[in-house]
């Protein structure tokens, strides 16, 4: 019998880190971090008090973004690259979902 396990959000993707900690981890200024948010390169959540909350994935992305900017890559190019990556991931998820549906249909299983 085949079971689909729904995964919980990984600790890496939980938005729990304040901008001050992100600043310390990345070496970026608050202004740089906010700028990358304005350019739609990172998407922090907001607490009830309006404070930005980042994930470890966001921290990694910010470091990668800063490195690319330092190498002369423009923010719009980075955003286009991120959109391509996101589309690829979504296509892969859809492919897996379709394959799982085919397997379930073949063996008479239901989700």
TrEMBL record:
The protein's name: MerR family transcriptional regulator
Origin organism lineage: Bacteria, Bacillati, Bacillota, Bacilli, Bacillales
Organism: Peribacillus castrilensis
Domain HTH merR-type: from-to ranges: 16-80
InterPro entries according to UniProt: DNA-bd_dom_put_sf (IPR009061), MerR-type_HTH_dom (IPR000551), MerR_fam (IPR047057)
MF GO annotations: DNA binding; DNA-binding transcription factor activity
SMART domains linked: HTH_MERR
Coiled-coil portions: 66-93
Gene3D superfamilies assigned: 1.10.1660.10
Keywords: Coiled coil, DNA-binding, Repressor, Transcription, Transcription regulation
PROSITE patterns linked: HTH_MERR_2
């Amino acid at each position: 019998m085949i079971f689909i396990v729904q995964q919980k959000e990984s600790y890496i993707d939980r938005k729990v880190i304040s901008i001050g900690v992100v600043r310390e981890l990345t070496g970026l200024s608050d202004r740089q971090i906010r700028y990358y948010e304005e350019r739609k390169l990172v998407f922090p959540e907001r607490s009830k008090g309006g404070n930005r909350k980042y994930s470890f994935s966001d921290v990694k992305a910010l470091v990668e973004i800063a490195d690319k900017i330092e190498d002369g890559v423009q923010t719009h190019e980075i955003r286009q690259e991120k959109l391509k990556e996101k589309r690829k991931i979504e296509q892969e998820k859809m492919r897996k979902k379709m394959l799982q549906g085919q397997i379930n249909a073949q063996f008479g299983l239901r989700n």
